[in-house]
Backbone:
Protein backbone atom coordinates (compact mmCIF):
# COMPACT_ATOMS: atom_id res chain seq x y z
CA UNK A 1 0.00 0.00 0.00
CA UNK A 2 1.50 3.35 -1.04
CA UNK A 3 1.73 6.29 1.32
CA UNK A 4 -1.22 8.10 -0.26
CA UNK A 5 -3.53 5.13 0.18
CA UNK A 6 -2.30 4.64 3.76
CA UNK A 7 -2.97 8.29 4.48
CA UNK A 8 -6.54 8.03 3.13
CA UNK A 9 -7.15 4.89 5.17
CA UNK A 10 -6.01 6.59 8.37
CA UNK A 11 -8.10 9.64 7.55
CA UNK A 12 -11.14 7.44 6.95
CA UNK A 13 -10.66 5.70 10.30
CA UNK A 14 -10.36 9.08 12.06
CA UNK A 15 -13.58 10.32 10.41
CA UNK A 16 -15.41 7.13 11.42
CA UNK A 17 -14.21 7.48 15.03
CA UNK A 18 -15.28 11.14 15.12
CA UNK A 19 -18.71 10.32 13.71
CA UNK A 20 -19.04 7.47 16.22
CA UNK A 21 -18.44 9.77 19.19
CA UNK A 22 -20.63 12.52 17.74
CA UNK A 23 -23.49 10.05 17.23
CA UNK A 24 -23.30 8.61 20.71
CA UNK A 25 -22.76 12.07 22.17
CA UNK A 26 -26.05 13.23 20.66
CA UNK A 27 -27.76 10.11 21.97
CA UNK A 28 -26.31 10.68 25.43
CA UNK A 29 -27.49 14.31 25.55
CA UNK A 30 -30.92 13.43 24.27
CA UNK A 31 -31.45 10.61 26.71
CA UNK A 32 -30.01 12.24 29.80
CA UNK A 33 -30.25 16.02 29.60
CA UNK A 34 -33.83 15.95 28.44
CA UNK A 35 -34.76 13.24 30.86
CA UNK A 36 -35.75 10.29 28.66
CA UNK A 37 -33.78 8.10 31.01
CA UNK A 38 -33.87 9.52 34.53
CA UNK A 39 -32.39 7.42 37.29
CA UNK A 40 -34.66 6.99 40.27
CA UNK A 41 -32.35 8.59 42.81
CA UNK A 42 -32.93 11.50 45.17
CA UNK A 43 -30.47 14.27 44.31
CA UNK A 44 -30.14 17.77 45.68
CA UNK A 45 -33.23 18.66 43.61
CA UNK A 46 -35.36 16.75 46.12
CA UNK A 47 -35.80 18.20 49.59
CA UNK A 48 -34.85 15.53 52.11
CA UNK A 49 -34.00 11.87 51.70
CA UNK A 50 -37.17 10.42 53.20
CA UNK A 51 -39.17 7.65 51.62
CA UNK A 52 -42.00 9.88 50.40
CA UNK A 53 -39.57 12.21 48.63
CA UNK A 54 -38.17 9.23 46.75
CA UNK A 55 -41.68 8.10 45.84
CA UNK A 56 -42.51 11.59 44.58
CA UNK A 57 -39.49 11.50 42.26
CA UNK A 58 -40.48 8.00 41.13
CA UNK A 59 -43.97 9.23 40.21
CA UNK A 60 -42.56 12.23 38.36
CA UNK A 61 -40.27 9.89 36.41
CA UNK A 62 -43.18 7.60 35.55
CA UNK A 63 -45.21 10.60 34.36
CA UNK A 64 -42.26 11.60 32.17
CA UNK A 65 -42.28 8.19 30.47
CA UNK A 66 -46.03 8.45 29.84
CA UNK A 67 -45.52 11.78 28.08
CA UNK A 68 -42.71 10.45 25.93
CA UNK A 69 -44.61 7.27 25.00
CA UNK A 70 -47.66 9.41 24.13
CA UNK A 71 -49.90 7.57 26.58
CA UNK A 72 -52.63 10.08 27.57
CA UNK A 73 -54.61 7.41 29.42
CA UNK A 74 -51.60 6.77 31.68
CA UNK A 75 -51.24 10.52 32.28
CA UNK A 76 -54.94 10.71 33.17
CA UNK A 77 -54.47 7.85 35.66
CA UNK A 78 -51.88 9.88 37.63
CA UNK A 79 -54.57 12.42 38.57
CA UNK A 80 -56.45 12.02 41.84
CA UNK A 81 -59.90 10.42 41.91
CA UNK A 82 -61.65 13.74 42.66
CA UNK A 83 -60.28 15.14 39.39
CA UNK A 84 -61.30 12.01 37.49
CA UNK A 85 -64.83 12.11 38.95
CA UNK A 86 -65.27 15.68 37.68
CA UNK A 87 -63.34 15.38 34.40
CA UNK A 88 -64.48 12.63 31.99
CA UNK A 89 -61.81 10.80 30.02
CA UNK A 90 -63.12 12.13 26.68
CA UNK A 91 -62.78 15.74 27.84
CA UNK A 92 -59.27 15.10 29.10
CA UNK A 93 -58.25 13.38 25.86
CA UNK A 94 -59.53 16.27 23.72
CA UNK A 95 -57.64 18.77 25.88
CA UNK A 96 -54.50 16.62 25.60
CA UNK A 97 -54.71 16.59 21.80
CA UNK A 98 -55.25 20.35 21.71
CA UNK A 99 -52.15 20.79 23.86
CA UNK A 100 -50.03 18.40 21.80
CA UNK A 101 -50.84 20.11 18.44
CA UNK A 102 -49.63 17.14 16.38
CA UNK A 103 -46.22 17.32 18.03
CA UNK A 104 -44.34 14.58 19.85
CA UNK A 105 -42.77 14.86 23.30
CA UNK A 106 -39.14 13.73 23.09
CA UNK A 107 -38.00 14.57 26.59
CA UNK A 108 -38.74 16.09 29.98
CA UNK A 109 -36.14 17.57 32.26
CA UNK A 110 -36.69 18.60 35.87
CA UNK A 111 -35.56 22.02 37.07
CA UNK A 112 -36.94 21.87 40.62
CA UNK A 113 -38.34 19.09 42.80
CA UNK A 114 -39.36 19.63 46.40
CA UNK A 115 -41.63 17.97 48.92
CA UNK A 116 -43.25 20.05 51.68
CA UNK A 117 -45.43 17.88 53.85
CA UNK A 118 -48.22 16.44 51.72
CA UNK A 119 -47.51 18.73 48.77
CA UNK A 120 -45.02 17.94 46.01
CA UNK A 121 -43.66 20.69 43.76
CA UNK A 122 -42.09 19.68 40.44
CA UNK A 123 -40.97 22.19 37.83
CA UNK A 124 -40.16 20.72 34.44
CA UNK A 125 -39.40 21.65 30.85
CA UNK A 126 -41.11 19.56 28.18
CA UNK A 127 -39.26 19.28 24.87
CA UNK A 128 -41.06 18.55 21.59
CA UNK A 129 -39.83 17.18 18.30
CA UNK A 130 -39.83 20.70 16.84
CA UNK A 131 -36.92 21.42 19.27
CA UNK A 132 -39.05 23.79 21.35
CA UNK A 133 -39.46 23.57 25.11
CA UNK A 134 -42.44 24.50 27.24
CA UNK A 135 -42.56 24.99 31.00
CA UNK A 136 -44.88 22.72 32.98
CA UNK A 137 -45.40 22.88 36.75
CA UNK A 138 -46.58 19.66 38.35
CA UNK A 139 -48.55 19.90 41.60
CA UNK A 140 -48.79 16.62 43.57
CA UNK A 141 -50.55 15.66 46.80
CA UNK A 142 -49.90 12.70 49.08
CA UNK A 143 -53.15 10.83 49.74
CA UNK A 144 -53.95 7.37 51.06
CA UNK A 145 -53.41 6.22 47.46
CA UNK A 146 -49.90 7.65 47.31
CA UNK A 147 -48.73 10.66 45.32
CA UNK A 148 -51.48 11.84 42.96
CA UNK A 149 -51.48 14.74 40.52
CA UNK A 150 -53.44 17.84 41.48
CA UNK A 151 -52.65 19.96 38.44
CA UNK A 152 -50.37 20.52 35.45
CA UNK A 153 -49.93 24.16 34.44
CA UNK A 154 -49.74 25.08 30.74
CA UNK A 155 -51.38 21.77 29.96
CA UNK A 156 -55.12 21.75 30.69
CA UNK A 157 -57.74 24.51 30.40
CA UNK A 158 -58.12 26.44 33.64
CA UNK A 159 -61.79 25.40 33.82
CA UNK A 160 -60.61 21.84 34.62
CA UNK A 161 -59.23 23.13 37.92
CA UNK A 162 -62.76 23.50 39.32
CA UNK A 163 -63.05 20.17 41.11
CA UNK A 164 -63.10 18.81 44.64
CA UNK A 165 -65.52 21.50 45.84
CA UNK A 166 -68.90 19.84 45.34
CA UNK A 167 -69.48 18.30 48.77
CA UNK A 168 -71.21 21.21 50.49
CA UNK A 169 -71.64 19.45 53.85
CA UNK A 170 -67.97 18.57 54.05
CA UNK A 171 -66.99 22.11 53.10
CA UNK A 172 -69.03 23.61 55.94
CA UNK A 173 -67.62 21.10 58.43
CA UNK A 174 -64.02 21.74 57.33
CA UNK A 175 -64.45 25.51 57.56
CA UNK A 176 -65.77 25.10 61.11
CA UNK A 177 -62.74 22.93 62.00
CA UNK A 178 -60.43 25.49 60.43
CA UNK A 179 -61.87 28.27 62.61
CA UNK A 180 -61.40 26.08 65.69
CA UNK A 181 -57.76 25.47 64.77
CA UNK A 182 -57.17 29.16 64.17
CA UNK A 183 -58.74 30.55 67.32
CA UNK A 184 -59.16 27.75 69.87
CA UNK A 185 -55.83 26.06 69.21
CA UNK A 186 -53.86 29.15 68.27
CA UNK A 187 -52.88 28.48 64.65
CA UNK A 188 -53.55 32.15 63.88
CA UNK A 189 -50.36 32.91 65.85
CA UNK A 190 -48.43 31.50 62.90
CA UNK A 191 -49.42 34.72 61.11
CA UNK A 192 -49.86 37.34 63.83
CA UNK A 193 -47.83 36.16 66.80
CA UNK A 194 -48.01 39.35 68.87
CA UNK A 195 -51.40 40.66 67.76
CA UNK A 196 -54.07 40.93 70.42
CA UNK A 197 -57.00 39.07 68.90
CA UNK A 198 -60.31 40.94 68.79
CA UNK A 199 -63.43 39.11 69.94
CA UNK A 200 -65.33 39.83 66.73
CA UNK A 201 -64.59 37.61 63.75
CA UNK A 202 -65.86 38.86 60.40
CA UNK A 203 -66.05 36.31 57.59
CA UNK A 204 -66.47 37.65 54.08
CA UNK A 205 -69.44 36.03 52.36
CA UNK A 206 -71.32 36.47 49.08
CA UNK A 207 -74.50 37.02 51.09
CA UNK A 208 -74.93 38.40 54.59
CA UNK A 209 -76.38 35.94 57.10
CA UNK A 210 -78.42 36.98 60.11
CA UNK A 211 -76.90 34.08 62.05
CA UNK A 212 -73.56 32.59 61.10
CA UNK A 213 -73.15 28.90 60.35
CA UNK A 214 -69.95 28.92 62.39
CA UNK A 215 -69.35 29.08 66.13
CA UNK A 216 -66.14 29.80 68.03
CA UNK A 217 -66.37 29.85 71.86
CA UNK A 218 -65.53 33.28 73.26
CA UNK A 219 -65.96 35.04 69.89
CA UNK A 220 -68.78 36.65 67.96
CA UNK A 221 -68.77 35.34 64.39
CA UNK A 222 -70.43 37.37 61.63
CA UNK A 223 -70.79 36.27 57.98
CA UNK A 224 -71.32 39.39 55.90
CA UNK A 225 -70.62 40.87 52.49
CA UNK A 226 -67.55 43.12 52.30
CA UNK A 227 -69.77 46.21 52.12
CA UNK A 228 -71.67 45.14 55.26
CA UNK A 229 -68.39 44.43 57.07
CA UNK A 230 -67.11 47.93 56.33
CA UNK A 231 -70.41 49.40 57.56
CA UNK A 232 -70.30 47.49 60.87
CA UNK A 233 -66.58 47.43 61.66
CA UNK A 234 -66.64 50.73 63.58
CA UNK A 235 -69.17 49.28 66.04
CA UNK A 236 -66.85 46.38 66.95
CA UNK A 237 -63.28 45.69 68.04
CA UNK A 238 -62.50 43.88 64.75
CA UNK A 239 -59.16 44.58 63.07
CA UNK A 240 -59.48 42.20 60.12
CA UNK A 241 -61.82 39.89 58.28
CA UNK A 242 -61.35 36.30 57.15
CA UNK A 243 -61.84 35.01 53.64
CA UNK A 244 -61.98 31.32 52.78
CA UNK A 245 -59.92 31.60 49.62
CA UNK A 246 -60.01 28.00 48.37
CA UNK A 247 -61.02 24.59 49.65
CA UNK A 248 -60.47 21.33 47.83
CA UNK A 249 -61.24 17.74 48.86
CA UNK A 250 -58.95 15.20 47.18
CA UNK A 251 -59.49 11.57 48.11
CA UNK A 252 -59.03 11.51 51.91
CA UNK A 253 -57.38 14.95 52.16
CA UNK A 254 -58.95 18.38 52.52
CA UNK A 255 -56.89 21.50 51.91
CA UNK A 256 -58.23 24.92 52.85
CA UNK A 257 -56.68 28.36 52.31
CA UNK A 258 -57.68 31.19 54.64
CA UNK A 259 -56.81 34.85 54.06
CA UNK A 260 -56.66 37.37 56.90
CA UNK A 261 -57.24 40.88 55.55
CA UNK A 262 -56.61 44.00 57.68
CA UNK A 263 -59.48 46.49 57.92
CA UNK A 264 -57.20 49.41 58.79
CA UNK A 265 -53.80 50.61 57.68
CA UNK A 266 -50.80 50.36 59.92
CA UNK A 267 -51.98 47.54 62.20
CA UNK A 268 -48.86 46.26 64.03
CA UNK A 269 -48.00 42.68 62.96
CA UNK A 270 -50.70 42.79 60.28
CA UNK A 271 -49.52 45.30 57.70
CA UNK A 272 -50.86 43.37 54.72
CA UNK A 273 -53.09 40.49 53.68
CA UNK A 274 -51.77 37.26 55.20
CA UNK A 275 -52.77 33.67 54.57
CA UNK A 276 -52.49 30.13 55.86
CA UNK A 277 -53.15 26.67 54.46
CA UNK A 278 -54.51 23.90 56.69
CA UNK A 279 -54.74 20.17 55.98
CA UNK A 280 -57.40 17.80 57.32
CA UNK A 281 -57.56 14.01 56.91
CA UNK A 282 -60.73 11.94 56.63
CA UNK A 283 -60.02 8.97 58.89
CA UNK A 284 -63.25 7.25 57.80
CA UNK A 285 -62.44 7.39 54.06
CA UNK A 286 -63.94 5.99 51.87
CA UNK A 287 -67.06 5.60 54.05
CA UNK A 288 -69.98 7.95 53.39
CA UNK A 289 -69.85 9.65 56.78
CA UNK A 290 -66.53 11.55 56.95
CA UNK A 291 -64.43 11.90 60.09
CA UNK A 292 -62.25 14.94 59.55
CA UNK A 293 -59.31 15.65 61.85
CA UNK A 294 -56.64 18.32 61.63
CA UNK A 295 -53.23 17.13 60.47
CA UNK A 296 -50.87 20.05 59.80
CA UNK A 297 -50.44 23.61 58.60
CA UNK A 298 -49.15 24.05 55.09
CA UNK A 299 -48.14 27.15 53.15
CA UNK A 300 -47.96 30.56 54.87
CA UNK A 301 -47.89 33.82 52.95
Residues:
Amino acid sequence: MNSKARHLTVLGIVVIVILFFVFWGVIFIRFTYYGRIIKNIVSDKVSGKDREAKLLLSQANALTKAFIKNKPQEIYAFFNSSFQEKTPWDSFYNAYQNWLLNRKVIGVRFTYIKRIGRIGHVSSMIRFNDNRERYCYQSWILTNKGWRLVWLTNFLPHSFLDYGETKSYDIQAIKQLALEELFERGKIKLLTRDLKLPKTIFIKSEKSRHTSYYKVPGYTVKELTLEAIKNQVYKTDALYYLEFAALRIIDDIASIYIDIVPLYRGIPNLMRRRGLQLFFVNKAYPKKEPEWIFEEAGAIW
Observations:
- Residues 168-300 form one domain.
- Strands lie at 105-116, 119-128, 133-143, 146-152, 200-204, 220-224, 240-250, 253-262, 274-282, 292-300.
- The first strand starts at residue 105 and ends at 116.
- The helical segments are 3-32, 51-68, 72-78, 81-86, 89-100, 168-184, 226-232.
